[in-house]
Amino acid sequence: MADIATAIPAAAPAHEVRAARLSAFVRYTLLTVVGLIMLYPLIWLIGASFKTNSEIFGSIGFIPREPTLEGYVKGWETSTPYTFGRFFWNTFLIILPKTIFTAISCALVAYGFARFEFPFKRFFFATLIATLLLPNVVTRIPQYILFRDLGWLDSYLPLWVPSAFAGDAFFVFMLVQFLRAIPRDMEEAARVDGANSFQTLIHIVVPMLLPALISVMLFQFMWTMNDFLGPLIYLSSVEKFPVSLALKLSIDTTEAFDWNRILAMSVLALLPALIVFFMAQKYFIEGISAGGVKG
Amino acid sequence: MESPRIGLAYLAPYLIGLLVFTAIPFLGSLYLSFTDYNLIQSPVWSGMDNFRELMNDRTFMRSLRVTLLYVFITVPLKLAFALFIAVILNYRLRAIGFFRTAYYVPSILGGSIAIAVLWRYIFADAGLVNMVLTGMGLEPVNWFGDPVNALFTISLLRTWQFGSAMVIFLAALQAVDKSLYEAAAIDGANKWHSFVHITLPLITPVIFFNLIMQMVQAFQEFNGPYIITGGGPLKSTYLLPLYIYDEAFKNFNMGYASAIAWVLFLIIMVLTVVAFWSSKKWVYYAGDKRS
């Protein structure tokens, strides 16, 4: 394990080197064991989705003895008139506008907070922090009544519209923190050259803000993908269900013992989030560290 | 030149949203909590009736107890785990990026219904966990049949997602000035002393942040119990958000549901205020680093 040795200052006495190597060994072992325990359920899930129903509760191992696609084929069909393809498409229909609205509205608001002085600015920023801590549970019922009165029930509007009004305070907060750390020189130069604040935003600020905006969009993607309660409250026709609701429906309607269908569809439900995460994990880690630490 | 007040124009989406989707609903649910409202007839003022009823509502009392128990188990467990792993990762390990990713994956997927489904399977009577236990010669555990175990199984699900708290801890740990440790080592401090007297005080702001965020989140847990246990057995995992959901969206008792929501909100608020108030005593802010 050469990489452990490099972590130790060269001039250390022999017994310290030995102690450091031992403790590095303990640490790696601990991390690996805990990591395996943590990831094994996911690995098992993937393996089990290719197992026959009789094997799922029969072995600890994840490699199927007789691999089968039965779970995927039958699960995809569902017990509704629609396939899971429809539910993935619905999820996409919810996510796409929501992500775009979020990025635009949060960028505008963060720009306002980070670059301008105006009356009640401190008060408004305080409300932002308060919303961050405000449990949704206390606003949910009147929101439902509002959307019902607008005739928006059983449509995607209740899921889309709040995001056009910077509905997730966390993202505004994250972008404000990010903007505060960016020097204003280029913006001031642009203003001197006669650009107005909106042109400055589009041509100077947005390009610099892009990494943070990508983080925001990725987080919104994940959260919306995983959102269950929102669709559960607002959507009632099966044809409009996103994947999360369809999965719950398939648990309720699938006959007992048809476990592999549900597991297979669970794998598919996790797949988009996993792919996006592995393609862009740096944005997640940076986003969450920035939002959390600089506060 | 434009007036700096143009900033207010950029804030417009937020201010409209704040009013329409947050402030008015917030006050609206306070009003509804003093009414009877079934969505068909208009709300009827009933004064303190809902709250008086709550005091005698055994389902509510049980649900409240279970919710508090759940939060007080889950939050410390999750934070302790997140900090422990972050401290280990913070040593100069080569594979830090790999481990950080591995530990973060459950957090990313965690809210998904698919994970709750997975939990149902691996903690089933003949599920993965019990197979491992019997394989090691231990007694299988009735995870969902026993009230205490069932709540703990859901706690475990959320503890399993310690990744995002860990990433925040790790970023804070990496920001600690290394020369402080060297100075302490010269003064004869061992690793444990350095951790208690240097690391912990310096990361208290982040501990505080994680504590508040995880607490607010835990009080609103819905997906886990809804999918995994359905609130059972014997209502042992029937957390307040489930009760609110049933009252509001199944029984359409909007007034009563709002009253429960407000009790939950007040509990969260009191605990948050206590945390903020106590933070003056234990959270350390270095100089004027905050901009």
Ordered list of secondary-structure elements with their pairings:
The complex is a heterodimer of chains A (295) and B (291).
Chain A lengths: L1 H4 L8 H35 L4 H4 L13 H8 L6 H32 L5 H13 L6 H10 L7 H8 L4 H12 L4 H8 L4 H30 L2 H6 L8 H11 L5 H21 L1 H13 L2
Helix pairs in contact in A: 4-14, 5-8, 5-9, 5-11, 6-9, 9-11, 9-15, 10-11, 11-15, 13-14
Chain B lengths: L5 H27 L2 E2 L7 E2 L3 H7 L2 H32 L6 H15 L2 H10 L5 H8 L11 H14 L2 H12 L3 H9 L4 H29 L3 H6 L11 H11 L3 H29 L9
Antiparallel strand pairs in B: 1-2
Protein name (chain B): Sugar ABC transporter permease
Organism (chain B): Paracoccus gahaiensis
InterPro entries (chain B): ABC_transporter_permease, MetI-like, MetI-like_sf
Could you explain the architecture of this structure?
The complex is a heterodimer of chains A (295) and B (291). In chain A, 73% of the residues lie in helices and 0% in strands. Chain A is built from 15 helices and no strands. Chain B has 291 residues and is mainly alpha-helical. Chain B has a single domain, classed as MetI-like fold, CATH 1.10.3720. Chain B has a two-stranded antiparallel ribbon. Chains A and B meet through helix 2, helix 5, helix 6, helix 7 and helix 11 of A and helix 1, helix 3, helix 4, helix 5 and helix 6 of B.
- Low-confidence stretches of chain B at least 5 residues in length (pLDDT < 50)? none
**Percentage of residues assigned to helices of chain B:** over 70%
Note poorly predicted spans of chain A. 1-8
N-to-C series of helices and strands of chain B: HEEHHHHHHHHHHHH
Structural class of chain A: mainly alpha
Biggest pleated-sheet summary of chain A: none
CATH superfamily of the domain at 80-242 and 271-293 in chain A: MetI-like
**CATH topology assignment of chain B:** MetI-like fold
* Largest sheet entry of chain B: 2 strands, antiparallel
Q: Kindly name the structural category of chain B.
A: mainly alpha
Query: What distance separates the N and C termini of chain B?
Result: 27 Å
CATH class division of the domain at 80-242 and 271-293 in chain A: Mainly Alpha
How many strands appear in the DSSP assignment of chain B?
2
Number of helices of chain B: 13
The N- to C-terminal Cα distance of chain A equals: 39 Å
> In the CATH classification, which architecture of chain B applies?
Orthogonal Bundle
Helix content of chain A: over 70%
The name CATH uses for the topology of the domain at 80-242 and 271-293 in chain A is: MetI-like fold
